Amino acid sequence: MLIIDGDQFSTANFGRHVLPVSAVRLAKAGALAAEVRRLHPDLTVEGVATDVFGVTARLQDYDLVIDATGSTPVGLRLNDLAVTTRRLGKPFPPVIHAAIHGNGLAAQTVLVTRSAHACLKCLRPNHGELKANPLKPGVTTAVESGTCGDGAHINYAAPAPMLAATLVVQAALEWAAAPDMPGPRVRTRVLDLEHTAPPKDRNWPIEPLCPACQGPVT
Questions:
Q1: Three-state helix/strand/coil letters over the chain
Q2: How many CB atoms lie within 10 A of CB 185?
Q3: Could you tell me the CA-to-CA distances from 185 to 96, 115, 164, 200 in Å, in that order?
């Protein structure tokens, strides 16, 4: 297992992370790798405190990539790297992108493999648009101001990342059991019925004009 994260653990992470208070100001990757080794001493795990795009060549050595950054720009850039690499005839592992929508209103995972199904950019063909958006029209996401030296962040309660993690595990296990038929590639679960209108779990079709998986390879 390779854990990649260039950030430090901060107080803003308490509601969305398994690390203890004693890990505050430590590099997330190293601290989490140590915690995983403590729980699973037979597992080989490495923590790298860097940006994922500085070590992309290493990703090809693994069976599965999980994008748990919650960052749309990072996810789209990783998606572009994955689909472009595959279109060039080179190997790149499947990627599970995980996201929390609203202030913890819904969790969603998108599995992108070498297949005739939508990539992450297919689901976001235009800026600000999300085909599988689980939020009702007009529902916005509030960004909290930074405190105690932390940067601004999207605040949500602990059940939201727990739900997202559960969806990731489900998607990963079903992919491992049947890589060619891993079940719905887009899965959504909600924690708030009043402000959400979740789409059904499904395999979305490729966007014909998607610049990532249908555009020219350079």
A1: CEEECCCECCHHHHHHCCCCHHHCCCEHHHHHHHHHHHHCCCCCCEEECCCHHHCHHHHCCCCCEEECCCCHHHHHHHHHHHHHHHHCCCCCCCEEEEEEECCCCEEEEEEECCCCCCCCCCCCCCCCCCCCCCECCCCCCCEECCCCCCCCEECCCCHHHHHHHHHHHHHHHHHHHCCCCCCCCEEEEECCCCCECCCCCECCCCCCCCCCCCCCCC
A2: 23
A3: 9, 11, 14, 11
| Predicted confidence pLDDT, tens digits, the chain (218 residues) | 999 999 888 887 776 778 888 888 899 999 999 999 999 999 999 999 999 999 999 999 999 999 999 889 999 999 999 999 999 999 999 999 999 999 899 999 999 998 889 999 999 988 878 999 999 999 988 776 655 555 556 777 778 989 999 999 999 999 999 999 999 999 999 999 999 999 999 999 999 999 999 888 76
- The 10 Å Cβ neighbour count of residue 30 is 17
CA distances for 187 relative to 48, 56, 68, 75, 90, angstroms: 29, 26, 15, 16, 28
